[in-house]
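Bug #77: duplicate submission created two jobs. Keeping one. Sequence:
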Amino acid sequence: MPQVYLYDTTLRDGAAREGVSFSLEDKIKILKHLDAFGMHYVEGGYPASNPKDLEFFNAAAGLELKNSKLVAFGSTRRALTSASRDKEMKALAASGAPVACIFGKAWDLHVETALRTSLDENLYMIGESVKYLKKKGMEVVFDAEHFFDAHAENPRYAMQVLEAAAEAGADWIVLCDTNGGKLPSDVERVVREVRARIETPLGIHAHNDADCAVANTFTAVAQGATMVHGTVNGYGERCGNANLCSVIPGLVLKMGVDCLPAENLAGLTDLSHYVSELANITPDAHQPYVGLSAFAHKGGIHASAVSKEARTYEHIRPDLVGNIQHIVVSELAGKSTLIIKAGEMGIDLDSEPAKVTDILKQVKDLEHVGYQFEAADGSFEILVRKSLGTHKQFFRLESFRVIMEKREDGRVMTEATVKIHVGGRRLIATAEGNGPVNALDRAIRIAIGRSYPALKDIELTDYKVRVLDEKKGTAAITRVLIETTDGEKSWGTIGVSENIIEASWQALVDSIEYGLTHQRRHEE
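Kept job's structure:
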């Protein structure tokens, strides 16, 4: 199978997703990351559409890209205007990018209702625009917008559009499922027909409105397309674009397509998470290949099987895409799951069969009342160490008290007092915070900070509350999850109670004790 070229449009199409707005600095960072990953083409934006994209191309001109060709995006010239006088054509030529991607209308419906021009004029617009950019020394990618819908309604004209671009010298012709509604069977038939009539290399640009963008991309490649368009994590307008985080490993590992060195593929999970952070979107844990749960095993039978042979429940090795196997502890866990999970934490349970039975019973009893250890590895490790008698209790609670005061000026103040015993000493500390958990956290730190200096490196990063039985109203059981970091690793802890502050206290204490435990081991 011939080489397939990867074309990323995260910075343009991906940024069309609701809630996403990349800054200039974000776009430059993502461009550098995509280049390091090995992406062949990176579409930077629409230089004629807004000042930020124009500024981006000015900034990108000074970069030395090792693997990627920078692409400027735009439309064909306007109707009844020469390409040399068209503002958009001139912006593309002046962008400094070596490649231009221009979209043109392939659907007669759009030509007559959106452009309000003749079908012949649209063909002239396409041909003259391609010729103009070729004369400027640019590689030209022609995006045949709405091609599959166009071909379904007026195949003769849709093919004339492609022929106009090909005859003018376009380097690539990309077939776009712009509305994202086509099925693989549609794509297979149409791409095969186009491939038989057009000699110019073909590409595929699929949107995901029918949840088929990735499948449609694979189908097009199987029929001869050698350029694939998509975005990192599938970000894009409406339901998104073809997800390159699924397309790329599918091409390399499933179809045997030459598009990226295998060693580069190991950076895929990192790329996915990097872009999601800059987009300010929580990574999808269940995303294929790169999600935290992509290689997670919750059922006891599954966990037991993968401990013996990973292929029993994993379609590829996680490390091939930079991910890891993840054993999840839950009420579905069996003894082998606990042993494997404890082993990941450096705890040997193989020689403690009675303890394994006891821990398993504790986990199932606790999850029955609302605990969930899937996202609380820190609390699970403490539970195991307490059962084995190896957990160090860093402090003992005598009592805590939380007071909330709403003042006349509208301000709300929270004050917490803790009475704690450390090494035979009784310590009392009071602190204010912007809420009960924050106040308790500060009070604990004041009380034990001198005894445990490592506490200064431990910081709460996330706090989640879930009401488990809403029908009980204010008497409902509450589950609190806390995420904590020491700057190098992160861990989750959990608390469950009818009292939200008590649930928070449980999770807070576990988070601190887990952090101090690992700081101590690190120092040893």
